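User: I'm preparing a small set of examples for a lab meeting where we compare how different chains pack in three dimensions. I only have the primary sequence for this one, and I'd like the structure in token form so I can line it up with the others. Please keep the answer compact; I'll paste it straight into my notes.
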Amino acid sequence: MLTTTVAYGSVEQIRAVQAADPLGADELCARLPRINPRADLFALATALRRILPDTADVGGFSRDACLAAMRDIGLFAGSIKRHGAEPGRVVPELLPVLEELGRRTGMVPRDTVLHYCVWNPTGERRRTYTGDAQERALQDSVRHAFPRLHTALELCGELSRTEPWEPGFAPLVAEIGGHAQVMVESIDRVIADVSPEFFARGLRPYFEEFTVDGTAYLGPAAAQVPLWLVDEVVWLSDAGVDAYERFLLDSVPYGLPRWRDLHAAWHGRPSAVGRLLTAAGGPHAGAVRAGAEALVELLRTVTTFRGRHLRIARQAYREDVRLYPLGSGGGSVDLLREVLLLTRENARIARERAHASPTRTPAARRA
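Assistant: Understood. Below is the structure token output for the 367-residue chain.
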């Protein structure tokens, strides 16, 4: 029977998925980094068939077992795609299993960055494509960031219901900013431990999209780590930024069900910066300064992360280095640059409010 007693994203749930091996895949997953350098499609397909359950078997899995099964199946499917074949054509019986696992977990029918990093075991049971220390470092950077970013999103839900002039607004923004700092820590780990060349040539090919029931699903991608949800509640939901909003809408399906619910609640509603602009010109103008200053600090943290992310993306996607023109999440370096500039612009707007500059309306942000 499907069990859902422990919330998605909790420490207990993460540990349960990490510990699970419902397909008995530990040994084959350990061998995968030795198969991939040979580009041995026959060995990969044989291994995938060995661990692949029947759809009827999936019906007896718990939710956490379903997540662990998707994690392990995804490694072999991603490896098959990396070596030039569509997984569903090589192993047709794969597709109904992926669809059932997606249905049982309320997620897309393939592995995501959460399966690959957060729900991945540690130690000897860790699943990797290459076995390289740089791949483990990249996984660990996401694993490190996830708990605090997950907490930040719940606080963002509270922020969406708190007005800028209320006493709780500034402390709430500051708390979100404290959790968002983990993204800077994580990108610094990547800069220190993962070369752009290794990511672009050694790892990025394993994250290519493949097709399930006529739909192409992206592989694990940093874009699936939902900093974009923080952007949405803080400044994006009413900003009228078409390119980033289209990218966000493409990213939404790859998140947890809770994240999709948060997006549905926030999309098109007034953002924190938008509400700050309105309040700065109304009867509560004198009460919004602390909230504006807190937003400046939060956006400064996000800007720091985005600036460093842009720097390494430019290195990894240089024409003489890259194998693909776009990131594994479907975004371009130009989009990263645009989002960085937009984040800086919203920090500037909040800074103006903190220093009692002339009021600027939310509509002016769309100009």
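A couple of notes for your slides: The chain has two domains: 11-111, 133-366. The beta strands are 210-212, 215-217.

User: Perfect, thanks.
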